[in-house]
Amino acid sequence: MRQENRPPPTRRSRLTRRGRLALFLATLVGLGTAVLIPLVPGEEAPEKPRQLLIPEGWRAAQVYAAIDRELKLPAGSAQAAAAKTALPLPAEAKGNPEGYLFPATYPVNSRSTPATLLTYMVETATKKLATKAVADGGKAHGMTPYQTATLASIIEAEADTRVDMGKVARVVHNRLAKSMPLQMDSTINYALNRATVDTKLSETKIDNPFNTYERQGLPPTPIDSPGLDAMAAAVAPPPGEWLYFVTVKAGDTRFSKTYEEHKRHVAEFNRLRSASKKT
Fold first, then answer.
1. Using an 8 Å Cβ cutoff, are 230 and 163 in contact?
2. What pTM was estimated for this model as a whole?
């Protein structure tokens, strides 16, 4: 769920009368309040902030590119800033903001920099992970906030609809409980820096820490920026015995308890894919 956010506070300084008026108007804009206040003759109108939209499921590389475009900076500027800035990340992240660049709409003005935007995104993700429902649910499952973000990122990538998020989360929890590899194509896509629904058998055997076909447990980091819905699903999945799922077609994800049932659904997926390629 995207949220409108106010710009992060800047260093305090002594404001002029014009500055106080601009600050007041900017605060009202940040709160989503439309108020018309006449300007003193000779004073300029305060700067109207632009908006930077970060959708759910974007990877850090996509967020960096969007920041560079919005701020009209050379490609790679935001990524370089992420490496140099002491972002308020958990120790588990080891300085990697993947999964903590929270998807939302952020205000941008002439004072915005990659560092201020990235910091604001990380702070927002941390606050969402600290909400009572998410934090308490994570603790009940024995997960740290970082592990919750990691699981939520898989749910964000794998679920075809918001309704499916809880069931995808249940599949992951069931597999972890049975010490089964997660076998998520989304983590293979992340390892290969791509997005596709076609994963070859040979690709499931690659030597990569994000290959959840070969390695048990969660991947070492999140694989995208999960939203609050995915975070909530990660810590409060519905009851169920599902161990498999496949999205047969848009809006139609089939969840299965047995591998035999899953194979029938996969066959349906392959049949529909073949038919679509012939048309």
1. no
2. 0.82
